[in-house]
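Predict the holo structure. Ligand: adenosine-5'-triphosphate.
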Amino acid sequence: MTATAGQELDELCYLSAQSMLSLKVSDHFQVVKLLGEGSYGKVMLAVHRKRGTPMALKFFPRQSTSLTSFLREYNLSLSYCTHPSLTRALGIFFSTPSYYVFAQQAGLYGDLYSVIVSEAGVDEECVQRVMSQLSSAVMHLHSLGFVHRDIKPENIFLCDSSCRWVKLGDFGLARAIGTTVRAVWYDSPFCTPEVEPVKEAEKERQRRECEGIEEEMEDIWISVEPCIDSWALGVLVYCLLTGCFPWEESTHDDRGYVRYKEWFDQETEKEEKNSGSEWRPEEENDCYTIMKKKHRNNPPPSQFEGLSPLVMSLFRELLHPQPKLRGSPEELLSYLGGPWLMETEREEKRKAEEAEKEARKIREGSGVEGELVREGRGER
Ligand SMILES: Nc1ncnc2c1ncn2[C@@H]1O[C@H](COP(=O)(O)OP(=O)(O)OP(=O)(O)O)[C@@H](O)[C@H]1O
């Protein structure tokens, strides 16, 4: 019998648990600075005292972290993140009286979140460069049997200042494909629409609590599937192109999402109607012409203004409301190289970028707040 990816990872965790050392950080590393903090711990840039190797040390407070979840994240990063755009662990892991720690490749230029908020939308070429790296990294992870489950700008680290090389990190929520997990709702467009029932259940649980009803509610369980990552990649494309979110949360009471869903359903309906009609090559001779025509007949909701028919078609793949019909990250590859912004938008963006450069020179370092908010998830 061949072991599944999840069993293989469990085995690595058992084996590595035996060889965990207890170390004093300052004996082995010179800590340089804080790289970032998340809901589970902090990440420091450090240099190995003997070898001079720079690395990111990820500190997990022992009080709030189980050894299993620490070892799972470490071993997954060490043994499966063998793609240049996945953040790989460096084979160093230990404990201190207060923390579990492991070393990882360091992204020395911050994360994608900072780029998005400082530039109010990244230039199109850069967006495609980032997305081609990420789609191939995520496909690699999927091919080894794992789903990341937490793709967002804060978890994409930069290896240079112009996003020529990015790495997806933070594998704390990654699980083997097919694992059954308790569904958790979190308030973000990155949370897939299929977990909306959990939000409703949460409301009901709170209502019962207020009314003193003691009867326990059952948890909702879902299977971990690659389409969770497809959704996040779709939202990420939108964030990169526009500098904001397409909607606040993917639920039936969010106006932005409802408008998207209505547009999506109309597109699907039309497609179904036309599927039987005869192909007329003399009228519609390339895919892009067809897309442009559709764009005119059923314009996307206002939050997508300035985005091209091509990228709207990509959204229809990655942001498919039904998980089973959602496209795989591989779809992204066939959209690279084409226009993701309308011509007018591209021109405006170029002007805005120039103005921003000028303004930045004048401001000299004063902070700018974007509309995106850094997110953390209370689940692991
Ligand atoms: N390898 C790394 N190189 C550079 N920066 C990093 C690295 N790992 C983490 N960071 C920085 O630290 C921040 C927090 O790290 P990370 O997301 O791994 O922590 P977390 O506690 O698991 O976060 P979350 O709340 O998203 O679950 C990141 O947003 C990033 O800015």
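Residues 343-363 form the longest helix (21 residues). The longest strand covers residues 29-37.
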